[in-house]
What we know:
heterotrimer; B: 164 residues; mainly alpha; Helicase, Ruva Protein, domain 3; 2 domains; elongated; C: 650 residues; alpha+beta; Four Helix Bundle (Hemerythrin (Met), subunit A); 4 domains; 6-stranded antiparallel sheet; 10 strands; 63% helix; 11% strand; globular
Amino acid sequence: MSRTRAFLGMLITVPLIWLFAKSMSRDPRDLGPSPLAGREAPGFTLAVFAPGQEALARPVGDSVRLAMFKGQVVVLNFWASWCLACRDEHETLSEVARFYVGKPVHFLGVLYNDDALSGNKWIAEMGGQSYPSVLDPGARTAIDYGLYGVPETFFLDASGRVAFKNTGPVTATVLRRVVDSLMAAASAPTAPAAPAAPAASAAPAGAGSK
Amino acid sequence: MRRARQGLVALSLALSLALILPRATAAQQAPAAARDTQMVTPEGLRSNASAKATDPALEARTSGVASGLRCPVCQGLSIQDSPSELSQQMRSLVRDQLAAGKTDEEVRAYFISKYGEWILLEPKASGFNTLVYALPILVVVGGLGLILTLVRRWTAVPADGDKT
Amino acid sequence: MIGTLAHGAILVSLAVVAFGMFFIPFAIKRGRRDWVALAYSAVYTNFLLITLATVAMVWALVTHDFSVSYVAQVGSKATPLFYTIISLWGALEGSILFWAWVLAMYAAAVVWINANRPGNLVPYAATALMGISLFFGILLIGPADPFKPVFPVPLDGPGPNPLLQNHILMAVHPPLLYLGYVGMSVPFAFAVGAMLSGEVLTDDWIKITRRWTLSSWGLLSAAIIAGMWWSYEVLGWGGYWAWDPVENASFMPWLTATAFLHSVMVQERRGMLRLWNLNLVVGTFVLTILGTFLTRSGIISSVHAFTTGTIGYYFLAFIAVTLLVALALVAGTSGRLKDENRFDAPASRETVFLLNNLFLTAFMFTVLLGTLFPLVAESVRGIKVSVGEPFFNRMSLPMIVALLFLMGVGPAMPWKRTSMAELKGKLLPPLIGATVMLVIAVAFGARNFYALVTFAFVGFSGASNKFEIWYGIRARHRAHGENYLTALFRLMAGNRRRYGGYVAHLGILTVALGIAASSTFRTETEATLKPGDSMTVSGHTVRLKQVWGREEVQRSVIGATLEIVKNGTVTGTIEPKMNFYPTSQQPVPTPQVKSSIAGDLYANLQAFRPDGSSATIRLIYEPMVPWIWFGGMIVVLGSVLSILPTRSRA
């Protein structure tokens, strides 16, 4: 009798402990790959509020449509002036964008839950942004991309699919690696439709959320 | 007499079962807010919230859908309850999509396609998820069966040394 | 300096506790009661040492000694003294220290009160408590060491988590919670003691255990209600319960403890359910540790979850050890427990208690399953799912209404057997109560099935419990010719346990009424107002007077002053605010609530224009919310009544 009970108890205890031990190795804030990965990127038409510099500049008020970049790689960076983690990646993004001038790659900043005035002030404070940034009224585009917080960076391949999502501040290594592989895939004659980079979210999540 | 007593047990069992089985929720209707609320804006201020809060049926549907969607930035609250900015924007998106003629299910599907199943505050009762709904019901039904058997067995014991 | 001292105190206490823990069984084996008494001094010494460490921590906090790691983590010179002191439990390490202190206090109290009790129950219980203390001591020198030296010493710290320094209830809810939560270790220790000493075969240990469970239960009830109040007053969404993992963690042991408090009566009266009660006591304790693990390990993200670290693995190991020890003990005991399995009739209070236990434990199981299911789903399917409020409401409502119904049936049912005639007479007032409540609810516009059933059952059980008290008063009035008030007091004094239980029932029913009314009849609206604009929610109109800003020492505050307008005249103001703390990107909402017995007007500042030209306000009218807090106080009153020993009849 008591042996049966002990056995029953173990039957509950052991899986429970196993479950916890297994779950301990995961970060609950890491939300896994974006459901958008490998799917066609949501389109948008958004107005430029920060022009960017030199070769990459676009006039303020210019409306940017995703469709304009067809056949090219797009790096979409969601940011905000109130976001502390965005400060860490700002310079990297500007530099890498400058590095790819003349290549079929477009960098675009999307301002998330912020106003143009604070956005421009922040850019000035941070020493300028090489590529243009657009406004996202009502965060509609952010929601379309399944945004959890800022910063998040989406990499769209030449066929207009979401290839990769980076949560938290993006590093130069990740930027260069993903952009290079996407460009290589685009130029290869037998480029498969599948995304070149694993469509997973890298880097610790939850770096900056509002 | 004995029959009557057993009947009472059976009745309470049936009553409990009846209460468990219907899957109607108060929860989804409870926050069906804004039904008898009205907006007074003397200067005709037209913000997102005030302009559209005039259709009670739409508001009720909006809060119904919004109560089932999880706020991405606040862990655990629905976008209906959460005061965060993103939740307010998501609510207004839900309202717009419903106003544009989408069904509740289509709006939910939109959010699942963007955020994954995670966005649903209540898992869909299909496949593996059925467990989370079925197990509690099994426990209650099994427990009621056990109590019924035990009470039967315990009352069947012949009245030996009386303990009154 | 003070850190080193406190660290030393904890180290010594570890040695003391380890010694006591192993020395007691040794002393018992040798049959030396005098050695047991010596080992008891280990319990007191531990209490003194942990008290010393806790006082040292408070001292370090107050004097802003940033060389102590915990102070460097949560302290700030700008934080007001009051919030500096209570930041003792504002983060992981401090809360573990506080936990260890409460546990040491309980252990000392248990030994102090029961020192002269013959038998080995108390010595073994002390062993178990020292075992738990040992675990928390290890945490305090390991993964949750609050006294790590910091070098170089920072000049200032970031201050406590903004959410925790924003409301006075942070001084009330956590201590109550720890007192109730940690208090569940005592019944567990007695259960272990009873099994080790063999006293489990008699029912005397259960009497002590019941009283300790009851006091912890009362504290835990108060803590849960205070937590609801805090979340209502601080989080700005106008709700008080969100089925957050940390709320579930406090609620699950409450459910099993409630089940125990009822089924223990069956054991005392009928000598039955011994094994079941043992399981409930053990289960309650395991659930407290499990809850702490869930919210402290970072395994589940929760509003209140503290920073992650290795501490989860320690808790995991402790849960495993506790479960294995408890399993071995219970399995070893179960064969020896001979219940007198006999009921007189199916229609009896015994049966109602069985049903009560079923629904309470099934409720606990549902909450546990829902809380853990995201982990299960991710481990099995590799997909993140959420299990939140809609699920818990859907699944728990049937069980809640069943429990509300049983709360009315139980007191009306006598022990052993019920005659139909007696039952008919007793069920009349409850049925009238149910009808009255139902009519009122329908008149106010409630149409939802569960809402109506809840109101009816609250009326049913409310009348049932009130009439049980009334029957007692009437009997005294007739027998002794006492006036009704005297009869009430004498009645309560004469059988505190029984009538305390009814009072606690009435408290729970009041809470249920407040919850049912506020969730059924809640109305809310949100609007962006310019100064001079007004908005209305169910007959309550407010007008925006101005949006203002103010700098305070530790934060900056943005507020909106709204005038409450009734028939064209201003009857008061309501002032929701947003507090901005330097350490947090997001503002802390600070809603304001205007309470009356009928309901709350709840205003939250959702957004504002920095130039003060407009503010977005969420205005909610929630009927009868104060009844929840009031009901909580009645519950506490009921448990206090039940704990006090019954005086022998004068």
